[in-house]
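does this look right to u?? carboxymethyl coenzyme *A version
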Amino acid sequence: MKQTMTMIDNRDGKSYEFEIKEGTRGPSVVDISSFYPQTGMFTYDNGYTSTASCTSEITFIDGNKGELRYRGIPIEELANKHSYLDVCHLLLTSKLPTKEESLAFDLELRHRSFLHEGLINMFNSFPTNAHPMAALSSATASLSAFFYNHLEMKDDYEYQEMARRIVAKMPTIAALAYRHSIGASFIQPDISKSFTENFLYMMRAYPHNRMHIDPEGERVIKPIEIQALDTIFTLHADHEQNASTSTVRGVASTGAHPYVAISAGISALWGRAHGGANESVIKQLEMIGSVDRVDEFIARAKDPNDDFRLMGFGHRVYKNFDPRAKILKSLQDQLKDELNLDSNLMQIANKIEQIALSDEYFIKRKLYPNIDFYSGVILTALKIPTSMFTPIFVIGRTVGWITQWIEYKKSKGAKIARPRQLYVGK
Ligand code: CMC
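got this back:
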């Protein structure tokens, strides 16, 4: 039987009926698409705190329980037992790959990781100290010029080809953006290396030294670094309708090229309320500088007249804990000795965490450490420069964005994303 909700306008007593829809999990949803035609009014929802913008089969979050699943599989299982590429396969095709499929997918992505010379040359027009996020977003938009055929895709094969291309190329673009930002020449991908190792290689290798040995004679890429970064990619792979994903869907709804939509997602991610938080966390820890000053900054975070916020705390959806943060915290503990984690930054981070978890201000507002609180410390231990923290988020999230883009394109009756407003001007 159809379930409904009746709303009464207390000004004139008129009542209106709306259908209640059930998903497979999560809260029920009131379908208000007929609200304006029925009532002549709009609904108002600042920041979309109560609005579902689409139906989706990709990712499920229960923010009260601290639960995250991709295609129904818990994030803990994926992070502990599967590679990032297997997670990409899961998101893109709805199933984890068999051993053979996994090898074929890996090989395909290695071969698709190269960039057109024209795109590489484009980087020369950026100032050498450009932030890698600026170059990443521009270069991704430019990819639409090189793969213009992706505007009209006929079948599943073409959708997959388009998606695999962008997933494979993103680490190469990110590494190039970084190398350009420090004035270093570009290193081509090495297809003998896995996805994650190749990214570290392209960032770190010296053009004259293909042996991956640093000036002190150490191996530049340790297996544990590859494993840690691979887990970080998995934890970032998708996160349902967050600000950047909604941006990607919004651009998709206008019929624009998929890579332009991904570029818009990258730009939306850059802000410090979203993916830019990982860079801000480390900058903030460095600014605090020592454990003795933590109280001063906690007091500032709590002061209603100070707009200072503790970076890496709070989340729109998670009101218990962020399951991704929990996995990273145990990864951080595991890496502590093996990677010589910066003890000063870690001590400051630990003290902030301890105070915040027991402080009334944070408890009342359900502000817990989020993924960015821990990823910054781990990425620092991996000797990743701070400016590359958000590009690493981009590399991990590209598969989620493009999967959401495809889902939008294949959904029946999809409409252009066009919110209304409450006009208060002259
Ligand atoms: N430090 C201090 N106070 C905070 C913080 C914080 N990090 N976050 C929220 N609050 C307070 C806020 O001042 C408000 O207090 P009051 O009710 O007294 O006005 C209350 O908590 C609710 O905040 P809000 O801004 O309405 O919450 P939101 O759901 O709109 O924002 C957020 C979520 C993530 C943007 C916010 O918590 C924040 O700015 N956090 C810091 C940035 C950060 O770590 N971002 C990464 C998010 S996780 C990665 C991702 O998925 O993008």
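DSSP finds 18 helices and six strands in the chain. idk if thats expected tbh
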